[in-house]
Design goal:
The complex is a heterodimer of chains A (419) and B (307).
Chain A lengths: L9 E5 L2 E6 L17 E4 L1 E6 L12 H10 L2 E6 L10 H10 L6 E6 L13 H6 L4 E2 L9 H14 L2 E4 L4 H4 L4 E2 L2 H6 L3 E2 L1 H17 L7 E3 L5 H12 L4 E5 L1 H5 L21 H13 L4 E2 L28 H8 L4 H15 L18 E11 L18 E11 L2 E5 L2 E2 L2
Parallel strand pairs in A: 4-5, 5-6, 6-7, 7-8, 8-11, 9-10, 11-12, 12-13
Antiparallel strand pairs in A: 1-2, 3-14, 14-15, 15-16, 16-17
Helix pairs in contact in A: 4-7, 7-8, 8-10
Chain B lengths: L12 H19 L13 E6 L4 H13 L3 E6 L11 H10 L4 E6 L4 H8 L4 E6 L5 H14 L7 E5 L6 H12 L3 E5 L14 E4 L2 H4 L5 E4 L5 H4 L6 H8 L3 H4 L7 E3 L12 H4 L6 H20 L6
Parallel strand pairs in B: 1-2, 1-3, 3-4, 5-6, 5-8, 6-7, 8-9
Helix pairs in contact in B: 1-12, 2-12, 3-4, 5-6, 5-12
C-alpha cells in the first residue's frame, strides 16, 4: 500500500532497493523471507519530531535507543530535534548527530536550531547546516518570540530551500504555566497555559509567511493542540500560503482531565487540552488541514518524572504508540493514516527521495509491515526507550508493526528489534 | 471517614465533615482540661513533611499529635535546599521506611500530597499544597462557624481576595457549599481563577454591595508580590476596592462574622481595628485548629491500632 493505491503482491528487495513487486516471487538462494501474510506492506513511517536527547542527556535516550524504538514503531526515518546539550545549532553538532545515527535502526535526519543556542537572539548558521543536508529548522521547546527576528529567519531560510518549524507559544502569556488553562487547571490549582498562547503565535507566523510570500517562504507548525490553531492554519491554507502542520498523538487521544492524577507523565508541551480541542485536532487531521502526525517523542529519565507536577519537565514517549493510536483513535482508513505518518511527513522533512515513496522497483527499500488488527498492551519497561514516560501504560492498542526494513536491511522482524 | 488519606475536602463529603465536627467537640473539651492529653495514639508516629515554611500549621499539627500522645517527627525541607531533580518519591519512601503511621505534607506544588499518598502505604494528610487545597483549614473554619451559629446551612458567606492563588479558598468553597452555605467570591478579575466552571458560587467585584447581605465575610491574605505580577496596581488600590476597612465594616449586619485564615496583613485586606472587633473569629479559628487536627489524625489512625 502506498500513495498510488494498494494491491496484493510480494515485494523483493536487494542492494538497499526494491527490485520487484509482483505476484508469487520465488525466493532466491540465501534470500531472507519475511512473512507479511495478513499484513500491509507500506513505505516506512517518518517522524518529523523526535527528541533523541543525544548529545547531553543520554540518561533519558540515545540515538541508538531512540532509533530502535522508532524502527519498532514502523519508522524508517526520524528528524532529531535540536534541543540537545549542546543544542544542534552549528555544523559541528549536526555532524556529530549524523555520525551517531549512521549505524542506527532507522535513518536519523537532523533539525537545526533557528537561533544560536535556541536563545532567540541571533540567527544560527542556517546555510552551513543546510549544506550538510539539514532541511528543517526549529527552536522547538520554545518558539522564536522576537517577531522581527522570526521575519528575518523566514526570509533568509527561503533562499536555502529549507523549512522553518515553529513551536508556537507566546512566552509571556504562557509564563509559569504547567497545564492547559481552563476549568481543570482552576480546580486543580495548577497555573495554566491558555490556548491563546499557542494561537497568537500561529496567527503571527501566518502573517509573517504572508509578508515573505514573494521569497517563497514556507513554514511548518509543530504539534498543533487547539481547535483555534487548526482553524487559523485552515484559513491560511485556503489563502494559498505555504504552510504545513503536524499534530501529536497525545493531542488527539488524551484530554487535560488526565492531569487530575497530578502524575507528571501527563505533563507535556503544548499541554493536553479539553475535549473540544481534541475534536478540533481530529477534524484537522481528517480534513487535511493537519498534514502529518508527529510523535514529539520526549523521553525523560524516570526520576525526573517523580517530582511534583510543576517541577517535572514536560514530555511523553511516542515512537512505539503513534501508529496504533492513529489506527485505533482516528476514524480514517489505513491509507489515510499512512499518508499522515509516511508520505506527507517525508515531503515536509525533505526526505521524499528515500522515504514515503511508492513501493515500486528502483525505490530505496524503506518499508514497514503492519498487522492492522493485531492487538498489544503497552508495558513501559518493554519499550525500547531508556525512559518510561508513556501516558498509555496498560492500554490495549490496535495495530502491530510486524517488520521494518531500513535501507534494504531488516531491522525489526516479528516485532523484535535486530539492531 | 472512610478515606485512608485526607487530600481534598471533597473526599470527605458532607457526612465526613459532620463526623469530624462531632469528634472535634470532644477534643475541644480535652484541650480545655488542665492536662490536655489523651492516650489515643500512644506508640504511633506522625511525621510532618514540610517543603514550605509554615510554622503555624506545623505547630498546630504537632500539638494535635502530641495531645493524642503520638510521637512526632518533623522533616522540614526549606525550598532553597531542595536540589532541583531530587525525587519527591525517594524522599517519601525514605521517611516511610523509618516507620511512620501518618504523614502530614505541606508542599508549594499542587498535588504533591496526592503523589506522596500514591507512593506510601500510610495515611497522608494534606497540610496545604500550592494553590490547590488546605482541607484541615476548611474543617476548622466550618467548625468555627458552627460554634458561633447553629449550622452552616443557609448561611451566606463571602470569600474576599486572592481566590486564584488560594488553597484556602478552594477548600472552603467546597466545604461551605457541601454544608449548605451560599458562597459569593469577591475579587478583582485578576485574582479569580481563569475558569469558575463547576464552582457552585456567585461572583462579584462590588464588596460594598455584598457586605450587607452576608452572614460571614472571609478575608484572604493578599501577598505583596501580586503587584509585581501586574495583578494589582498597588496594595493601596486593593485596600480601597476590596479591603475590609472600618467604613466597610459598618455595612455588615450586626451579627455578621469576620474570619481570616492568618497571618493577617493588618491595614491591607483587613483594618487593624476590624480584626480586633468582637465579631472577628480569627483567634478562635487558631484555637480550633488543634482540636480539628486531633479529630483528623484520630479518624485516620485511631480506628486500626498498629499490629
Amino acid at each position: 500500500m502506498d500513495e498510488t493505491g494498494s494491491r496484493r503482491a510480494d515485494v523483493a528487495v536487494g542492494d538497499g532497493r526494491i527490485v520487484a513487486v509482483a505476484d508469487d516471487i520465488p525466493p532466491t538462494a540465501g534470500q531472507r523471507v519475511l512473512d507479511a501474510g495478513g499484513c500491509v506492506v507500506a513505505p516506512g513511517l517518518v517522524d518529523l519530531h523526535t527528541h533523541l536527547r543525544q548529545p547531553g542527556n543520554e540518561e533519558a535516550e540515545t540515538v541508538e535507543t531512540g532509533a530502535r524504538g522508532a524502527a519498532l514503531g514502523g519508522y524508517t526515518a526520524v528528524v532529531a530535534m535540536p534541543n540537545t546539550d549542546p543544542p544542534i545549532d552549528s555544523a559541528g553538532v549536526v555532524r556529530e548527530v549524523l555520525e551517531l545515527g549512521a549505524g542506527a535502526a532507522c535513518e536519523v535526519a537532523v533539525a537545526g536550531a533557528i537561533t544560536v543556542g535556541r536563545r532567540g537572539e541571533q540567527l544560527a548558521p542556517l546555510g552551513e547546516m543546510a549544506a550538510l543536508g539539514v532541511r528543517l529548522f526549529t527552536d522547538d521547546g520554545a518558539g522564536v518570540a522576537d517577531t522581527r527576528l522570526m521575519r528575518r529567519a523566514l526570509e533568509y531560510a527561503s533562499a536555502l530551500g529549507v523549512t522553518l518549524a515553529q513551536h508556537c507559544e507566546d512566552p509571556a502569556l504562557a509564563a509559569g504555566g504547567h497545564m492547559h488553562e481552563g476549568a481543570e487547571s482552576s480546580r486543580l490549582g495548577i497555573p495554566g497555559i491558555p490556548a491563546e498562547a499557542e494561537e497568537l503565535m500561529v496567527m503571527r507566523d501566518v502573517a509573517l509567511v504572508r509578508m515573505a510570500t514573494a521569497f517563497g517562504a514556507r513554514m511548518h507548525f509543530l504539534h498543533l493542540s487547539t481547535a483555534g490553531s487548526v482553524a487559523i492554519v485552515r484559513a491560511a491554507k485556503a489563502g494559498g500560503l505555504r504552510v504545513t502542520a503536524e499534530a501529536a498523538p497525545h493531542h488527539f487521544t488524551l484530554t487535560d482531565a488526565a492531569v487530575a492524577s497530578y502524575d507528571p507523565t501527563f505533563k507535556v508541551s503544548p499541554p493536553l487540552r479539553p475535549a473540544d480541542d481534541v475534536e478540533g485536532v481530529k477534524a484537522g487531521l481528517v480534513d487535511g488541514t493537519i498534514d502529518a502526525i508527529a510523535t514529539d517523542h520526549a523521553p525523560h529519565a524516570p526520576e525526573r518524572k517523580e517530582l511534583a507536577f510543576d517541577q517535572a519537565p514536560p514530555g511523553m514517549l511516542g515512537l512505539q504508540t503513534a501508529l496504533s493510536l492513529a489506527l485505533g483513535e482516528l476514524a480514517l482508513p489505513i491509507e489515510r493514516v499512512l499518508a499522515l505518518l509516511s508520505w506527507r511527513p517525508a515531503r515536509i522533512a525533505g526526505l521524499e527521495a528515500r522515504h514515503g515513496g511508492p513501493v515500486a522497483p528502483g525505490r530505496p527499500a524503506n518499508l514497514c509491515v503492519i498487522d492492522p488488527s493485531a492487538r498489544w498492551v503497552v508495558d513501559p519497561p518493554r519499550l525500547a526507550s531508556r525512559s518510561r514516560n508513556t501516558p498509555y501504560a496498560g492500554r490495549t492498542m490496535t495495530g502491530v508493526v510486524r517488520h521494518t526494513v531500513s535501507a534494504g536491511e531488516p531491522v525489526v522482524v516479528d516485532a523484535e528489534a535486530l539492531r | 471517614m472512610t478515606a485512608s488519606s485526607l487530600l481534598s475536602i471533597g473526599d470527605l463529603g458532607a457526612d465526613g465533615i459532620d463526623e469530624v465536627m462531632t469528634l472535634t467537640d470532644s477534643f475541644v473539651e480535652v484541650s480545655q482540661r488542665a492536662m490536655p492529653k489523651v492516650p489515643a495514639l500512644r506508640g504511633r508516629t506522625v511525621v510532618s513533611l514540610f517543603y514550605e515554611d509554615s510554622t503555624r500549621t506545623r505547630l498546630s499539627f504537632e500539638a494535635a499529635a502530641r495531645r493524642l500522645s503520638a510521637d512526632t517527627m518533623n522533616f522540614s525541607v526549606s525550598t532553597s535546599s531542595v536540589h532541583k531533580g531530587e525525587s519527591l518519591r525517594d524522599t517519601a519512601l525514605t521517611i516511610e521506611a523509618m516507620g511512620v503511621d501518618a504523614l502530614v505534607v505541606r508542599h508549594p506544588s499542587a498535588g504533591a500530597p496526592a503523589q506522596v499518598a500514591s507512593w506510601v502505604s500510610c495515611p497522608v494528610v494534606n497540610a496545604g499544597d500550592g494553590w490547590h487545597e488546605h482541607p484541615t483549614q476548611a474543617l476548622l473554619d466550618c467548625y468555627t462557624i458552627r460554634s458561633a451559629r447553629p449550622s452552616l446551612a443557609g448561611l451566606r458567606i463571602a470569600i474576599v481576595g486572592d481566590i486564584k492563588h488560594s488553597r484556602v479558598a478552594r477548600s472552603n468553597v467546597t466545604a461551605f457549599t457541601l454544608m449548605g452555605a451560599e458562597v459569593t467570591l469577591v475579587a478583582p478579575p485578576t485574582l479569580l481563577p481563569p475558569s469558575l466552571a463547576g464552582w457552585p458560587v456567585e461572583v462579584s467585584t462590588d464588596l460594598d454591595a455584598v457586605l450587607p447581605k452576608v452572614d460571614v465575610v472571609y478575608l484572604l491574605r493578599i501577598q505583596a508580590e501580586r503587584q509585581a505580577e501586574a495583578l494589582l496596581p498597588s496594595l493601596r488600590e486593593y485596600t480601597a476596592g476590596y479591603g475590609l476597612t472600618e467604613r466597610r465594616a459598618e455595612l455588615l449586619a450586626d451579627d455578621a462574622l469576620v474570619m481570616h485564615p492568618g497571618p493577617m496583613n493588618r491595614g491591607v485586606e483587613i483594618a487593624a481595628a476590624v480584626a480586633d472587633l468582637p465579631c472577628s473569629l480569627v483567634t478562635r479559628q487558631v484555637a480550633n485548629g488543634v482540636a480539628v487536627r486531633m479529630a483528623v489524625l484520630f479518624l485516620l489512625l485511631g480506628a486500626e491500632p498498629r499490629g
